[in-house]
Write a structure and sequence with these properties.
Layout: H1 4-14, E1 19-21, E2 26-30, E3 37-42, E4 50-52, H2 55-60, H3 65-84, E5 88-90, E6 106-114, E7 117-124, E8 130-132, H4 144-155, H5 160-169, H6 176-194, E9 204-214, E10 217-226, E11 232-238, H7 247-257, E12 263-265, H8 270-279, E13 290-292, H9 304-320, H10 329-341, H11 352-355, E14 358-360, H12 365-380
Parallel strand pairs: 5-14, 9-12, 12-13
Antiparallel strand pairs: 1-2, 2-3, 3-4, 6-7, 7-8, 9-10, 10-11
Helix pairs in contact: 1-3, 4-5, 5-6, 6-10, 6-12
């Protein structure tokens, strides 16, 4: 059973902005009864000697709630760090073995000609099957390089017609409709594959909603993001903020990560708190998610990180002048781009996936994701 000081220390830890690290051994913990703070010092930087400037520790030499709070914080950070040291590698597809039996006994055997260029055919001497390494791009009239370049241009902000003009300069004559079909096809393919990859996100998540037009009708895109890694966990489209039920949205988020957060940060929308009370609030203090609401644009309790991601979505949506359907591949495609391909300055040039322990190998990450998704789909079906 937790002691009274331990329980109060956990409550301090679960509140955002209560603990601040000063240096390697010193922490500042906000007072719970006034505007001040107490200094917690880990004397030897790694042993059992702790001290706090609060009266409880100074007068009674007790392990006070402030020391407990810092220890809880350090334990969680150590746990997350250990998890992220186990890197999930999404490697470039190996072209030195048979696609079907994995044998290295393969030889070149002819060339297939199409509009995208010449494609080398191979023969496996062990299983006797012919194949090419045009994985994921079979029967496509454009090359993998043209298709992945088109997707990169589109999700960095270009319109479909601007992407079409770029491809024409490269000698690829396709319509803007064809470009949209490429995006639809490969986003759906990657979505199924990446849904099986578990990101190692932090313990604080942020939820927010963004007003978007779908065929001229106003709706809201609800998004969940990890506070530490900026990983976009889940999304859902809802018709109205006042009637929206966020329980399915919360369930999606938990399914992606495999657990619920320790801290949830939202605005004052009633739908978030209702879903939190029904799904993530428990009588057990140890298992309870702490919900921070009524945030502001300034100060410690702000949602600026989430607003930054909303700005990314808005920049993409402006070029399109609204979205067409609720199940559009554009939103899911941008989520994949945000998580696995877009480097973030706040993450020292890493992608959110890399911050979560997921490394996509190869110079063309679109190609790596598409080919791995295609091979995984072949194994399943």
């Amino acid at each position: 059973m937790e002691t009274s000081r331990e329980m109060r220390g956990r409550q301090i830890f679960e509140k955002e902005g209560q603990i601040e690290r000063i240096d390697l051994t010193t922490y500042r913990v906000s007072s719970q009864s006034g505007p001040g703070f107490y200094r917690v010092i880990h004397a030897d930087g790694g042993g059992p000697n702790w001290s706090c400037s609060c009266p409880d520790h100074t007068n009674r030499t007790a392990k006070c709630k402030h020391i407990w709070a810092v220890q809880f914080s350090l334990a969680i950070k150590a746990e997350v760090k250990a998890e992220r040291e186990e890197i999930t590698q999404i490697e470039s597809v190996n072209i030195s073995s048979c696609r079907f039996c994995g044998s290295a006994q393969i030889v070149r055997d002819g060339v297939r000609h199409n509009k995208a260029g010449n494609i080398q055919l191979y023969l496996c001497r062990d299983c006797g099957r012919y194949f090419s390494f045009n994985i994921g791009f079979e029967k496509m009239k454009a090359s993998p390089q043209a298709i992945t370049s088109a997707m990169q241009l589109y999700f960095t902000g270009e319109s479909l017609r601007n992407v079409q003009k770029f491809l024409r300069l490269q000698g690829v004559n396709v319509s803007h409709v064809a470009v949209y079909k490429w995006i639809t096809k490969y986003v759906r393919l990657m979505e199924k594959y990446l849904d099986r990859v578990k990101p190692k996100v932090g313990n604080t998540w942020r939820a927010d909603e963004l007003w978007v037009k779908f065929k001229g009708s106003p709706k809201y895109v609800f998004a969940m993001m990890d506070d530490e890694t900026r990983f976009w966990i889940a999304q859902e489209v809802g018709g109205s903020k006042t009637t929206y039920d966020a329980r399915n949205f919360f369930a999606k988020s938990k399914e992606v990560v495999g657990r619920k957060p320790v801290v949830l940060i939202t605005d004052g929308l009633k739908a978030y708190h209702d879903a939190y009370k029904r799904m993530w609030w428990t009588h057990s203090l140890e298992n309870r998610t702490h919900h921070i609401r009524h945030i502001s644009m300034k100060g410690n309790r702000n949602n600026n990180k989430m607003e930054r991601m909303n700005g990314e979505i808005r920049d993409r949506e402006k070029v399109m002048r609204g979205l067409k359907t609720e199940n559009t591949p554009i939103l899911k495609g941008y989520q994949i781009y945000h998580n696995y391909l877009r480097p973030h300055e706040s993450l020292q040039g890493r992608t959110p996936a890399e911050a979560c322990g997921i490394s996509v190998q190869g110079s063309n990450k679109w190609l790596t994701l598409i080919q791995n998704a295609k091979l995984q789909n072949e194994k399943l079906y």
